[in-house]
């Protein structure tokens, strides 16, 4: 019997205090990723031109989908030829991979299951949902209230993971795997098939009922809002789902979330046993009230009620259930398109889980926001969706990822050093109305830092960046279009100024070693008032004297000083 010990060098998550970091090739790793369009990774020929373009855009990781239909075209016959060519090509381009297992569920549907599953609804029953007239409609979604699909998916996924171990354990090209994609029921709040109905009428499983009736103070706000009132007096021990005294749609969502969690746990645990890479699943974000934008059609994102968005997916309303019932998943990851980015980052560090953003906007609006994820939420990685259909010169992530790659050793060190960094962004100023992303103030030890858009005489530019306190009096400033005003928090201080402000350039990406390229002073600090990290094209506003220089490296070290009354 060959007893396999887990290779300590395979990609894994390491907890350091309150921070979890992804370890790849033995070192902390920041995923500067991009997710491919859905069908791109199905062809190694198609990927031949894509990999070099993404490497040139400073990505270090590509997220590509591996489908059940392509993996197991006939039951029991597995085909990894395209996948192997893609893994080798990624490796040869110096890129890592996160694979997305499109198995039973993808955007709430089952379109990626193999044909031998699709055409056999008796063996693989489907979900039925209510039409508006109350009649039942059979839809293209596998029901989770039967075990055949779950077992077949788990077998296929375990076979994939076993294969990855065989072909890639020595290389760690594949660093994580996403299990399924944006799970949930669309068009209704739950499955209404006969098998689902039988389950719904049955007593709620004791393990779940105990949770529902226990102290929920560490559950998310929406969960407590929906189920916080439940207690043993109101809920008999043999209560069915019909008996729960709560909002019916929310009970349906809980019903689906609990059973989807059990289904995915079976698939994920089978894969984890074969090759224990970090595993996660991703979530189509709903509009939880504060984000609701009725002007945005609910097509591939958004939705305010279960069924408008995939009911049962790991949205904040049921995130605790997903975290408690999928121990083989290392975290639950948000796809952030339409929602408030900062609020969603905070939501998905719930229970101390690491934040990974497998999908987000790929425009400058989205690119600015990753600094907040990395600098203020210890994000282990980001991946704009549809990255391969962007031309290199129109890809805003090239600049952002280039600077993040240079500064990665400093950022990773800061992430493992609590309260030593902050990330932020300033959007374009609206033509009318209040400024979005206003100035804000942070305190780092004996210094208060006011962070705002960088000074110009003309129209202020958008900006984004990060501040890292490297020593008590030394700050690494990263990014563009912002400035920092330092003030001593010492009550005896009567003056604060800038002792030194040096533009830096990384000379070794592996260590983050930097050299000084300019000594910044004078106009670059408005004569000592604040440290300016200018945008690439500061608007002079027609002012006759060009005092605002453009950005160069986007990296600088600043040391404030204070004069204190004795
Ligand atoms: C979210 C899904 O997870 C992606 O696979 C893709 O379908 C995008 N939506 C864009 O529609």
TrEMBL record:
The UniProt record lists the keyword rRNA-binding: no
Keyword Hydrolase: yes
GO BP: any one term: carbohydrate metabolic process
Domain Glycoside hydrolase family 42 N-terminal stretches: 50-197
Alphabetized UniProt keyword annotations: Glycosidase, Hydrolase
Location of the DUF5597 domain: 397-531
One Gene Ontology CC term in the entry: beta-galactosidase complex
UniProt similarity note: Belongs to the glycosyl hydrolase 35 family.
One Gene Ontology MF term: beta-galactosidase activity
Protein name, per record: Beta-galactosidase
Transmembrane segments: none
A Pfam family recorded for this sequence: Glyco_hydro_42
């Amino acid at each position: 019997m060959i007893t396999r010990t887990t290779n300590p060098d395979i990609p894994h998550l390491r907890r350091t205090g309150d921070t979890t970091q992804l370890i790849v090739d033995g070192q902390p790793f920041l995923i500067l990723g991009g997710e491919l369009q859905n069908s791109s990774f199905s062809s190694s020929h198609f990927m031949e031109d894509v990999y070099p373009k993404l490497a040139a855009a400073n990505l270090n990781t590509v997220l590509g989908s591996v489908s059940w239909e392509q993996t197991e075209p006939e039951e029991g016959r597995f085909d990894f030829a395209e996948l192997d060519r893609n893994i080798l090509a990624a490796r040869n381009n110096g890129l890592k991979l996160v694979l997305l297992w499109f198995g039973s569920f993808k955007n709430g549907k089952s379109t990626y299951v193999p044909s031998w599953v699709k055409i056999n609804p008796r063996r693989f029953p489907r979900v039925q949902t209510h039409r508006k007239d109350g009649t039942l409609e059979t839809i293209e979604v596998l029901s989770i209230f039967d075990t055949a699909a779950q077992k077949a998916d788990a077998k296929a996924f375990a076979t994939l993971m076993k294969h990855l171990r065989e072909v890639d354990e020595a290389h760690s090209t594949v660093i994580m795997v996403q299990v399924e994609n944006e799970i949930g029921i669309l068009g209704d709040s739950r499955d209404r098939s006969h098998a689902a109905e039988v389950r719904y009428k049955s007593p709620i499983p004791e393990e779940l009922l105990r949770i529902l009736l226990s102290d929920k103070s560490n559950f998310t706000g929406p969960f407590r809002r929906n189920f916080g009132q439940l207690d043993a007096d109101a809920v008999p021990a043999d209560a069915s789902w019909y008996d729960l005294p709560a909002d019916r749609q929310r009970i349906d969502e809980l019903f689906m979330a609990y059973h989807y969690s059990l289904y995915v746990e079976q698939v994920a645990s089978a894969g984890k046993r074969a090759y224990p890479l970090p595993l996660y699943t991703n979530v189509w974000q709903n509009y939880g009230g504060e984000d609701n934008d009725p002007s945005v059609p609910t097509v591939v994102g958004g939705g305010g009620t279960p069924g408008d968005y995939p009911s049962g997916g790991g949205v904040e309303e049921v995130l605790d259930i997903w975290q408690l019932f999928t121990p083989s998943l290392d975290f639950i990851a948000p796809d952030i398109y339409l929602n408030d980015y900062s609020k969603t980052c905070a939501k998905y560090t719930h229970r101390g889980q690491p934040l990974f953003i497998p999908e987000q906007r790929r425009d400058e609006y989205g690119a600015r926001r990753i600094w907040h994820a990395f600098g203020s939420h210890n994000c282990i990685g980001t991946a704009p969706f549809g990255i391969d259909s962007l031309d290199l010169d129109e890809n805003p992530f090239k600049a952002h990822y280039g600077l993040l790659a240079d500064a990665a050793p400093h950022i990773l060190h800061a992430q493992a050093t609590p309260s030593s960094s902050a990330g932020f962004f300033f959007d374009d100023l609206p033509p009318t109305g209040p400024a979005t992303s206003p100035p804000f103030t942070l305190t780092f030890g004996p210094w208060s830092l006011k962070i705002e858009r960088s000074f110009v005489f003309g129209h202020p530019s958008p900006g984004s960046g990060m501040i890292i306190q490297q020593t008590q009096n030394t700050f690494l400033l990263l990014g563009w279009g912002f400035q920092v005003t330092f003030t001593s928090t010492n009550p005896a201080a009567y003056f604060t100024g800038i002792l030194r402000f040096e533009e830096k350039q990384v000379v070794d990406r592996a260590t983050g070693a930097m050299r000084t390229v300019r000594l910044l002073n004078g106009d670059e600090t408005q004569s000592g008032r604040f440290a300016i990290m200018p945008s690439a094209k500061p608007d002079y506003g027609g002012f006759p004297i060009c005092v605002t220089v453009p950005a160069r490296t986007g990296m600088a070290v600043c040391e404030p000083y204070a004069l204190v009354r004795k």
